[in-house]
Protein backbone atom coordinates (compact mmCIF):
# COMPACT_ATOMS: atom_id res chain seq x y z
CA UNK A 1 0.00 0.00 0.00
CA UNK A 2 2.87 2.37 0.69
CA UNK A 3 4.20 1.73 -2.82
CA UNK A 4 0.88 2.84 -4.30
CA UNK A 5 0.91 5.96 -2.13
CA UNK A 6 4.43 6.78 -3.30
CA UNK A 7 3.41 6.29 -6.93
CA UNK A 8 0.37 8.54 -6.44
CA UNK A 9 2.57 11.24 -4.89
CA UNK A 10 4.95 11.06 -7.82
CA UNK A 11 2.12 11.40 -10.29
CA UNK A 12 0.58 14.41 -8.49
CA UNK A 13 3.79 16.33 -7.72
CA UNK A 14 6.51 15.52 -10.20
CA UNK A 15 10.01 16.34 -9.04
CA UNK A 16 11.21 19.64 -10.45
CA UNK A 17 14.57 21.21 -9.90
CA UNK A 18 14.76 23.88 -7.16
CA UNK A 19 14.95 27.33 -8.79
CA UNK A 20 18.28 29.07 -8.59
CA UNK A 21 18.62 32.48 -6.83
CA UNK A 22 18.70 34.23 -10.21
CA UNK A 23 15.29 32.79 -11.01
CA UNK A 24 13.62 33.14 -7.62
CA UNK A 25 10.32 33.86 -9.30
CA UNK A 26 8.82 31.07 -11.39
CA UNK A 27 8.51 31.70 -15.10
CA UNK A 28 5.04 31.93 -16.66
CA UNK A 29 5.64 28.67 -18.54
CA UNK A 30 6.05 26.59 -15.37
CA UNK A 31 3.05 28.14 -13.62
CA UNK A 32 0.62 27.68 -16.50
CA UNK A 33 -0.09 23.92 -16.61
CA UNK A 34 -2.92 24.26 -19.14
CA UNK A 35 -0.72 25.77 -21.85
CA UNK A 36 2.27 23.47 -21.36
CA UNK A 37 0.38 20.27 -20.63
CA UNK A 38 2.52 19.56 -17.54
CA UNK A 39 1.49 18.90 -13.95
CA UNK A 40 0.48 22.05 -11.98
CA UNK A 41 2.82 24.48 -10.15
CA UNK A 42 5.65 24.16 -7.67
CA UNK A 43 6.10 21.68 -4.90
CA UNK A 44 5.51 22.74 -1.31
CA UNK A 45 9.23 23.03 -0.43
CA UNK A 46 9.78 25.14 -3.54
CA UNK A 47 6.91 27.49 -2.62
CA UNK A 48 8.24 27.85 0.92
CA UNK A 49 11.70 28.62 -0.42
CA UNK A 50 10.38 31.27 -2.84
CA UNK A 51 8.30 32.92 -0.10
CA UNK A 52 11.26 32.81 2.27
CA UNK A 53 13.50 34.54 -0.28
CA UNK A 54 10.88 37.23 -0.90
CA UNK A 55 10.53 37.85 2.83
CA UNK A 56 14.29 38.17 3.24
CA UNK A 57 14.46 40.69 0.40
CA UNK A 58 11.59 42.70 1.92
CA UNK A 59 13.12 42.64 5.40
CA UNK A 60 16.49 43.87 4.18
CA UNK A 61 14.93 46.67 2.12
CA UNK A 62 12.78 47.78 5.09
CA UNK A 63 15.84 47.82 7.36
CA UNK A 64 17.79 49.88 4.81
CA UNK A 65 14.92 52.36 4.45
CA UNK A 66 14.54 52.67 8.22
CA UNK A 67 18.26 53.33 8.72
CA UNK A 68 18.26 55.87 5.89
CA UNK A 69 15.21 57.59 7.40
CA UNK A 70 16.84 57.78 10.84
CA UNK A 71 19.94 59.34 9.33
CA UNK A 72 17.98 61.99 7.40
CA UNK A 73 15.62 62.98 10.23
CA UNK A 74 18.23 64.78 12.33
CA UNK A 75 16.79 68.13 13.44
CA UNK A 76 18.42 71.08 11.76
CA UNK A 77 19.19 73.83 14.26
CA UNK A 78 20.29 77.09 12.67
CA UNK A 79 23.51 78.54 13.98
CA UNK A 80 21.89 81.94 14.53
CA UNK A 81 19.07 80.67 16.77
CA UNK A 82 19.73 83.43 19.32
CA UNK A 83 19.20 86.10 16.65
CA UNK A 84 15.99 84.47 15.45
CA UNK A 85 14.58 84.24 18.98
CA UNK A 86 15.48 87.88 19.67
CA UNK A 87 13.69 88.94 16.48
CA UNK A 88 10.58 86.95 17.44
CA UNK A 89 10.64 88.54 20.89
CA UNK A 90 10.88 92.04 19.41
CA UNK A 91 8.01 91.37 16.99
CA UNK A 92 5.88 89.97 19.80
CA UNK A 93 6.51 93.02 21.98
CA UNK A 94 5.70 95.34 19.06
CA UNK A 95 2.40 93.53 18.41
CA UNK A 96 1.55 93.66 22.13
CA UNK A 97 2.12 97.42 22.16
CA UNK A 98 -0.05 97.90 19.06
CA UNK A 99 -2.87 95.86 20.60
CA UNK A 100 -2.63 97.93 23.78
CA UNK A 101 -2.81 101.13 21.68
CA UNK A 102 -5.90 99.89 19.86
CA UNK A 103 -7.50 98.99 23.17
CA UNK A 104 -6.82 102.52 24.48
CA UNK A 105 -8.34 104.05 21.32
CA UNK A 106 -11.49 101.91 21.61
CA UNK A 107 -11.93 102.82 25.28
CA UNK A 108 -11.48 106.52 24.46
CA UNK A 109 -14.06 106.27 21.67
CA UNK A 110 -16.53 104.54 23.98
CA UNK A 111 -16.14 107.18 26.69
CA UNK A 112 -16.54 109.97 24.09
CA UNK A 113 -19.77 108.46 22.72
CA UNK A 114 -21.09 107.98 26.23
CA UNK A 115 -20.34 111.66 27.01
CA UNK A 116 -22.07 112.78 23.80
CA UNK A 117 -25.12 110.61 24.54
CA UNK A 118 -25.29 112.00 28.08
CA UNK A 119 -25.08 115.57 26.77
CA UNK A 120 -27.82 114.93 24.18
CA UNK A 121 -30.06 113.34 26.80
CA UNK A 122 -29.60 116.31 29.14
CA UNK A 123 -30.45 118.75 26.30
CA UNK A 124 -33.58 116.76 25.48
CA UNK A 125 -34.64 116.79 29.12
CA UNK A 126 -34.15 120.55 29.22
CA UNK A 127 -36.18 121.03 26.03
CA UNK A 128 -38.99 118.84 27.24
CA UNK A 129 -39.08 120.43 30.68
CA UNK A 130 -38.98 123.93 29.11
CA UNK A 131 -42.19 123.25 27.14
CA UNK A 132 -44.05 122.37 30.30
CA UNK A 133 -43.83 118.62 29.85
CA UNK A 134 -42.41 116.49 32.59
CA UNK A 135 -39.07 114.84 32.14
CA UNK A 136 -40.51 111.60 33.43
CA UNK A 137 -42.97 111.23 30.55
CA UNK A 138 -42.56 108.35 28.20
CA UNK A 139 -42.02 108.69 24.45
CA UNK A 140 -45.51 107.27 23.89
CA UNK A 141 -47.01 110.05 26.01
CA UNK A 142 -45.03 112.61 24.02
CA UNK A 143 -46.39 111.26 20.73
CA UNK A 144 -49.96 111.24 22.06
CA UNK A 145 -49.56 114.81 23.36
CA UNK A 146 -48.26 116.01 19.99
CA UNK A 147 -51.25 114.43 18.24
CA UNK A 148 -53.66 116.25 20.57
CA UNK A 149 -51.97 119.57 19.77
CA UNK A 150 -52.62 119.18 16.07
Description:
With 150 residues, this protein is mainly α. The chain folds into 2 domains: 2-72, no CATH class; 81-139, no CATH class. The protein has 6 helices and no strands. It has helices at 2-12, 28-31, 33-36, 44-72, 81-130, 139-149.
What is the compact description of this entry?
The protein has 150 residues and is an all-alpha fold. 73% of the residues lie in helices and 0% in strands.
Poorly predicted residue ranges: none
Oligomer class: single chain
Category from helices, strands and their pairing? mainly alpha
Q: What is the β-strand count? A: 0
Strand content of the residues, in percent? under 5%
Overall mean pLDDT: 78
Descriptive key words:
mainly alpha, single chain, 150 residues
SSE map:
Blueprint: H1 2-12, H2 28-31, H3 33-36, H4 44-72, H5 81-130, H6 139-149
Amino acid sequence: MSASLAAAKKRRAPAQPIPSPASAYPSPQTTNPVASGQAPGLTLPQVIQVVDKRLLILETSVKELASARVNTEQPVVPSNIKDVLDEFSERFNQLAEEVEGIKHIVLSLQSYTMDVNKMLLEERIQLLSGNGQSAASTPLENVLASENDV
